[in-house]
Amino acid sequence: MRALLAAFAALLALLPAPVLAWGDYAHRQTARVAEANVSPQVRARVRALLAREKDLGTPRCPLTTLEGASVWADCVRSEGWRWGYTAAWHYRTAPICEAFNARGNCPGGNCVTAQIARAHRILADERLPAPVRLEALAFMVHFAGDVHMPLHSGDNEDRGGNDREADYGIKPGLNLHSIWDGPLAERAISDPADPVVRRYSAAERADLSGGKPDDWGRESWEIARSFVYPTAFDSDNVCAAPLPEKTALSQDDIARGVPIARRRVVQAGLRIADLLDSAFAPGPLVPDEPRRRRE
Q1: How far apart are CA 226 and CA 237, in angstroms?
Q2: Residue 22: what pLDDT?
Q3: Average pLDDT over residues 256-261
């Protein structure tokens, strides 16, 4: 029996490890950055909402911490019969070979930027029931992460890179979207000597945060247009001709992408902190929406 168990363990070690993606690792890091950069009062109000988790009726998808909130929207989406209508809320892709259209690809507000603003407005409305605001909190935290991943905004007729097979260094069989979603983001924020989770100074926050959801989406689109696709396909003009269905990122490509991915994760975390501050504390809102106060 011991020999059998040892052989089974050895076999498992040969299998590819699951990739930690924006759907897990990077999303959780954005939540930890946010939590480290809000006031104790805001953290307490977030915890008070999280205490109402059972009222949402999503036992398979825990929502007891801000980290849990950062991945909840991906978790519930697996129950398509109940949450399938939220699928389009995770992205707002725009063609990189056309002029950026801030109003495009968001029919009826069903896109990531519109849903960040909507969720923020609901969260800030203290007249609404706590479970409604808790759901909005979870959507807002997750979508504010999604909009910072370049291929949730930039597209070249390939569903944000999902249809472009790409090798990641010596690892084959991925696609361009999954690389930026997973191993590249994980590598970018995993240096123990330079942790992303910490309290950022006012000067750092001034440099890294600010803006509104539409601005964040445009930033991601620009990164996809000027860096992600040109780097992946070794071309200064990826719009001149159809791109091949398969490519590969070299170690140099990956090294140049790491600081960009890292900056986007930190920006997402600090902007989530801004959203939480403005929803729970007096002051101007980040999305340009009116705030309903307690009567």
Answers
A1: 9
A2: 61
A3: 98
